[in-house]
Amino acid sequence: MRRLVVESAVLLALVIASAFTLSALESQLSLASGAVATMAMLAAATSVAAGFAAEMVARLSEQSSLRRIAAAMMLYGMVVVPTTASGLAATTLDTIVVIAIRHTATLLTITLLLLAVVPFDRPHPWPIRPFRNPATGLRGLLVAAVCSLASGGLAAAFPEAAYLVVRSPILFSCTALLWLNVALTCLVIGVLRRNRMLVWLSFGQLAIVLAHAPRFWSGDSLFYAPPLYSPLLAPGMRVLGTTLVLLAVLQVAYRTYQRFHLDQERLAKAEAEAVEARQRLSTQAHELRNALAGLDGAAQVLAMDDPEGKVDRAALRAALSAELNRMRAMLSPQSEHTRNDTTRLRSLLKQLVLIRRSNGTAIDLTVDGDPVVAMPQDAVAQVITNILANCERHAPGAHVWVETYRISDTMVRVRIHDDGPGIPPGQEQEVIRRGVKGSGSVGEGIGLAVCQELVTRHGGRLQIAPADPERPGFTVLIDLPLRSRAQQSSTPGV
Q1: Contact at 8 Å (CB) between 71 and 112?
Q2: Are residues 262 and 309 both part of a single domain?
Q3: Domain residues for 475?
Q4: Residue 374 carries which DSSP code?
Q5: Structural domain ending residue among the three candidates 269, 290, 316
Q6: What is the pLDDT of residue 424?
Q7: Which residues fall within 8 angstroms of residue 237, CB to CB, at 6 or more apart?
Q8: Which of 239, 384, 405, 446 has the least C-beta neighbours within 10 A?
């Protein structure tokens, strides 16, 4: 509040200093009527600009006070200023009509500004259909303009009575005091509410009141004074007042823009988080379906009688337990495949192949040595499970071969091949993209994309081998980094 009080003192000093400066310069300068008319046009244009800016901000921010300010400033710029600077003769009927219109428009401007400080909204909609929508500044301008023209029509119909009314000093004094009180009310409420717009609006009104001050203290010359009665003070203060109002509205517009920009950033962040969460949930659901498809067959095999002992139940139970633990880790909020940095491929591949065999898939496994890769076991299991599940889903009944061999001193390759229908030539890169799936596929097209992301994240590479006419089917090559010496020394016993 202290800052707002200091700002109010600076604005008050600016308005008073401007009034005294213009008054002093007025006696020393002789301005042409064209220059004064130009200043009047500038004040009118600034007032209309402030009104349109307030209307636009009101439509964006849903602030009813800005709609009334918009109507008031557009009315002032379109009606009050032009009728004040009109060059009609003093005793003609046209002058009486114009003055009546000006007085009515001025009172309506003051009323709209007062309603902007003390908000008022109808509790019930208007009975007329076009007026049932939320009020706008343009509607207020239309109503005020119609009322002003109606007063001009009454003045034309009853010129003698209108002459007595518009010539009455009481009307001028009451108008001046009313506008001054509205300005002070805006100032007090603005300071109490810490509303910078109301504070600037109050000093804009004060400058406008000072612009019309010569008419309020000149007595009988109010009616008979020349139209451009104050060559410099009146248009100069009007320009200052409307400029302060425009700056007040622009401050609100800037804050509204900042709020909208912040809301857009928050919305974009929320949308990104929602997309990420949706992708994460979709990936988890996909992985769980693949894992459950294998576990279903293993559970059925364990439930069956095996009097001849053809099934290695201990190995199958161990593989089943490992898969259940992997699924439990997958559902954990902190599951990021970082619990174990290395994986023994031989033991893991044996477990995964055993589970798929129990599901009815014919799989041959060949492992060259006992390679240890620098990739967490959960991540490797997720990749291999995805590929094997794809073989079962897209090539049912096909034979699958899983081979592991070194391709360099630092890389080991896992080659998974089936003799199913494969994919069309040239689609090797396309099928890896997220969301891409075959015409008859019932999946979501995310399995291979997830596998590639996991392998790439840990320094490996996943690719689809081109189709071999002599050996039809689908072949996936997974290159994984071998465990380094530093990892070997930090993980003894692996």
Answers
A1: yes
A2: no
A3: 305-490
A4: S
A5: 269
A6: 80
A7: 18, 19, 22, 207, 208, 210, 211
A8: 405
